[in-house]
Amino acid sequence: MKTEIVDVNETRKNLRVEIPQDVVDAEIDRITRDYSRKARVPGFRPGKAPSRVIKQRYKDQILHDVVHDLIPRAVDDALRERGVEAVDTPDIRDVTVDEGQPLTFTASFDTVPSFDPGDYTTVALTRTASKVEEEAVDLAMQRLRDRAARFEPVEGRGVDHGDTITVDLQRLAGGKPDTHDNVSVELGAKANPPGFDEQLLGLEVGATKSFDIHYPADHPIGELAGTDVSYTVTVKGIKRRILPELDDEFAKDLGEFETLDALRARVREDLEHEARHAAERDVRAQLMKQLAARVPFEVPPSLIDREIDRRLEEFAHRLIEQNIDPRQAGIDWNAFRESQREVAREAVAGAIVLDEVARREQLDVTNEEIDQEIGRHAERTGRTPAAVRARLVSEGGLSRVSAGLRREKSIDFLMARATLSGEA
After folding, report:
1. What was the pLDDT predicted at 409?
2. CA distance 186 to 180
3. Which of 17, 147, 171, 394 has a Cα-to-Cα distance from 57 of 20 to 30 A?
4. Residue 94: pLDDT band by 50, 70, 90 thresholds?
5. What is the DSSP string of 134-180?
6. Predicted confidence (pLDDT) per residue in 284-305, tens digit
7. Long-range contacts for 362-370 (Cβ within 8 Å, ≥24 apart)?
């Protein structure tokens, strides 16, 4: 087999391959025999049609199977022989194949070359203060109070600021009516359409009102931006929110707290824990940003696109968890995709440096460490380790687990050698 690698740039390569005629003809004969055993050809008993008839009748299918069988093996053998690793499935083009001729093709792929990640000790990181101020504790206590609020029916007056009302609502946009019954609307909520609350003020139970709302051109929901929407609202109920007093009884209602001071101490402890984790995330983000700047070549576009896909899938999954259909969320997905390109490039570049550090420093992952990570995932998801492992194996995910653990080792290795300043 003849092979030649041509550099398109530092990371993009073209692999030109020629598979000898005898190998191609032998594969054609093998596949032809398989077809002969199964094919039903008029004028011949099953399995008795001559090879030349089978080759003529099923030529396109046979050559397709030859290409499908020979090319992946040839690419794998060529890359392994040259010690080159493709970061994604190569693109195959310019395929020529026929009986009595060598099979030729070109495989284009991205790769990550070895490089010097630089002096580890020049990484300088700053840890932000994780001290929790009294104002933060006050805000957290107020949020607990808000969540514990109860609602009481209102009689004898119309809708006022801060009320929560139940309405039947019809919306007319673009000539298409959209009706919803028994909708709960909190006046003052950020999600309410612009100017919507003002139209409801003063309405009493049983009142119906029709009005138009103009959505500004910069409205976050793209399909509504710059449009006029007609609403018809019928008020069916008005409730006002009653906040509990912040006292010992309030603390007892929330759990194992005997006093308000005990609750406040737990809130502070939780905030401090969260602040420490936020500080650690910030330090890691600084590290990844500095590492990304050390990559001396353009990051392969295929890796950036893969990272963008991962981010979009993760975002769509979060929407689904909030009972929001990503297809109906009014998001310009092409614009959102492009908005992620730079952060995706930086994330990929940082990971490339981590992989290079792991290779140079021989930071390997053991089977025991993989088992422990699978066990932790199983505990978080309420499944058995065997079930988690089986799914990872079926999806080819074990290599991702190993790569993730190896990068964590690289992070620990670099953090131990970096200069860290700031508050602990």
Report:
1. 95
2. 16
3. 17
4. very high
5. HHHHHHHHHHHHHHT-EEEE--SS---TT-EEEEEEEEEETTEEEEE
6. 999 999 999 999 999 999 999 9
7. 363/406, 363/409, 363/410, 363/413, 364/406, 365/402, 365/405, 365/406, 365/409, 369/405, 370/398, 370/401, 370/402, 370/405
Proportion of the chain above pLDDT 90, given as a percent: 63
Q: What is the pLDDT of residues 197-239, one digit of tens each?
A: 999 999 999 999 999 999 888 888 777 888 889 999 999 999 9
Compute the C-alpha angle 241/144/324, nearest 5°. 80
pLDDT of res. 423: 61
Answer for the pair 230, 175: CB distance below 8 angstroms, yes or no: no
> How far apart are the C-alpha atoms of 423 and 283, rounded to whole Å?
12
The mean per-residue pLDDT over the stretch 160-180 comes to 88
Arithmetic mean of pLDDT over the chain: 90
> Is 80 exceeded by the pLDDT of residue 44?
no
DSSP string across 273-323: HHHHHHHHHHHHHHHHHHHHTT--SPPPHHHHHHHHHHHHHHHHHHHHHTT
From residue 229, alpha-carbon distances to 44, 184, 215, 216 in Å are 72, 19, 8, 11
CB atoms within 10 A of CB 255: 9
CA dihedral 309, 315, 317, 321 (to 10 degrees): 180
Report which DSSP code applies to 257: -
CA distance 10 to 346: 18
Cα separation of the two ends of the chain: 60
**Residue located via tokens 């896909």:** 309
Residues in the chain: 424
| pLDDT band at residue 45 using 50, 70 and 90 as cut-offs | low
CA dihedral 304, 309, 311, 317 (to 10 degrees): -170
3-state secondary structure of 75: helix
Those residues whose C-beta lies under 8 Å from the C-beta of residue 133, and which sit 6 or more positions away, are none
CB 87 within 8 A of CB 109: yes
Rounded Cα distance, 288 and 353, in Å: 9
Q: What are phi and psi of 8, to 5 degrees?
A: -80, -45
Q: What pairs with residue 165 in β-bridges?
A: 185, 238
> Which residues have a Cβ under 8 Å from the Cβ of 12 and sit 6 or more positions away?
108, 109, 110, 300
How much is the pLDDT for 273? Answer: 93
